[in-house]
Amino acid sequence: MTHLNKKQMAAVFSKRESRQYEQEGYRYALNISNAFLLERIFAFALDTSIMFLPIALWELCILLIFIGILPIWLLDPLEIGTLILLAISTLSFNAILSVKSGGQTLGKYFYDLKVVKKNHHEASAATLAAREIIGFSLPTFVLFLFFNIIGVGAYWLINLLFLLVHPKHISIIDLFLKTRIVVLRQTLRFVDTVAEEVEPLVPVTTIDLHIHSQFSYDGQYNVEEIFQMAARSGLKTISICDHNSVKANRIARQMAPLYHVNYVDGVELDCRYRDVDLRVLGYFINSSSDIFAHLENESLKREKNASLRRVEAFQHHTGIRVDVDALLENNRFQRINGEMIAEHLLDHEELHDRPILKPYLYGEKSDDPIAHINEDFFAEGAPCFIPIRHPKLEDILDIIHLTGGMAVLSWAKETLEYDETFFTEVLDQGIEGIEVFTPYYSEAQMARLLRIAREHHLFVTAGSDFHGAHKQEIAIGETNCPKEAEKLVQTLLDVKGKTPQTGA
């Protein structure tokens, strides 16, 4: 085993933090709002104070000379030494910290802040160094030499006033370098929760029948990591229902006895009824059936075809060329959605002079440019929206039932709100249950769905729809199911007449 010294370990840690931020965290970093303004100011003040530590040392030496502990002849060398230390601390300390940590000085580290590019991606080392030296260190040192503390105070006051009045609470130098300060809270920490959470997670219930793994295009964690979290959370029964994929189930059945968590084979399948897109959860399915491999392959083909058409539609509509090869490289699912195209545009500065991108870079939509671009160009009804023709609901229900499974309607509230008559028609096709308890529904909405389930003699399920960082606000086991209602969900497990894989 290779042993690292403290310096090497610190370097590895800072690179790991930056790598995690660039892979996942940048999507969830928050702009500085009024809620974080005090933290921004305190970090600003702490970084400024560090610059002037040599002056504090100088004042201490003056005091020791005054009371006779140090000889007076040390005054001149101490003054020279203080100026040298001041030059070092102001011109290099914060800049080196920022470059080494990928955008965090001591103050920013304490308050979970980070310097990034305007699009929230990592800033280059040159940009980080220039921000600290040109924006703060050099003006501070020069003003101190010529105007003493009065000049420095005036400069910092101007910066502070600008920080307070700017809507994103940035410094003056950020305007020129196109950088931002973002809040990392629940960003990098969320990316690494499996290994580093100290307190156990506490679910609302002990059953979570809607979890996504890395076999879903938007899932973060592998199957074993999910079981680790489930066991630590006190969950007794789970089901991994990946999008159009059953690959997680084989691994999950192996993990269940190791972590003493019951497991139900599951899948979430895209389908359509009367040209309305739906999703159906299949439980107790025979995951080894070849039909599911066929479904997954067909789904991947549809998604890739739609991705290429989506890029083509955008290029035709805007005249902006998108590098498809770059977007598909290392793309396991060969899927290009609107958010990926938006990130691609923002990452390429040579495209930033295009008039169509101005509102997202500098205008009223620059607060969350990726979300706005996705909504304006790729959402349903937008000019570059590409519909995907999923299999018919009737065919998907036949597959679930033929493989021994039970069909449960996912996102039941949304289907109900589309049209109540339509909702009843969907249920009549062979749906055996509806997902009632989920963190996305209010108590009133869940109560309405529960009444419908009773009226139609349907089973009731509870699921968090846990994805990881893609939906970081939702924790595993967070289903909104009251403890007393858990017996309704348990009925599905009991009545089905099958014993889930267990380690009990």
Task: Write up this protein.
With 504 residues, the chain is of the alpha/beta class. Helix content is 53%, strand content 11%. The protein has 21 helices and eleven strands. The strands form three sheets. A five-stranded mixed sheet has the order 7-8-9-10-11. It has a three-stranded antiparallel sheet with strand order 1-3-2. A three-stranded parallel sheet has the order 4-5-6, sandwiched between helices. The radius of gyration is 28 Å and the shape is elongated.
Strand order of the largest sheet: 7-8-9-10-11
Q: What is the CA-atom radius of gyration, in angstroms?
A: 28 Å
- Rounded mean pLDDT is 84
Q: Termini distance?
A: 37 Å
Name the descriptors.
504 residues, five-stranded mixed β-sheet, disordered N terminus, single chain, 21 helices, alpha/beta
Short description:
This protein has 504 residues and is α/β, with parallel strands linked by helices. It has 21 helices and 11 strands.
SSE layout and pairing:
Elements: H1 6-23, E1 30-31, H2 37-51, H3 53-66, H4 75-101, H5 106-110, E2 113-117, H6 125-165, H7 172-177, E3 179-183, H8 188-191, H9 193-196, E4 207-211, H10 223-233, E5 237-240, H11 247-259, E6 262-263, E7 266-273, E8 276-283, H12 290-318, H13 324-328, H14 338-347, H15 358-361, H16 369-378, H17 393-402, E9 406-410, H18 412-418, H19 420-428, E10 433-437, H20 443-455, E11 459-462, H21 486-495
Parallel strand pairs: 4-5, 5-6, 9-10, 10-11
Antiparallel strand pairs: 1-3, 2-3, 7-8, 8-9
